[in-house]
């Protein structure tokens, strides 16, 4: 599965880690550049989206 329903816009991520810390599904992680990244997923990580201070966590509806 290559789809990422929840995905990170790394162009506006500031690497605060808040989304990763609240994500209990282990879908989100910090990559080697110190920015959040999402594994392929079909999840709606609403809590991670809500805690992101820059709006970098996106959730596709379809
Ligand atoms: S909460 Fe937002 S700014 Fe912070 S690491 Fe996650 S995506 Fe980046």
UniProtKB/TrEMBL annotation:
SUPFAM superfamilies recorded: 4Fe-4S ferredoxins (SSF54862)
Domain 4Fe-4S ferredoxin-type: 4-33
UniProt-recorded name of the protein: 4Fe-4S ferredoxin-type domain-containing protein
């Amino acid at each position: 599965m290559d789809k990422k329903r929840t995905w990170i816009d790394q162009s506006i991520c500031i690497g605060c880690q808040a989304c990763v810390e609240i994500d209990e599904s282990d879908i989100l992680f910090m990559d080697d550049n110190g920015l959040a990244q999402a594994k392929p997923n079909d999840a709606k990580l609403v809590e991670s989206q809500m805690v992101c201070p820059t709006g970098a966590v996106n959730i596709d509806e379809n």
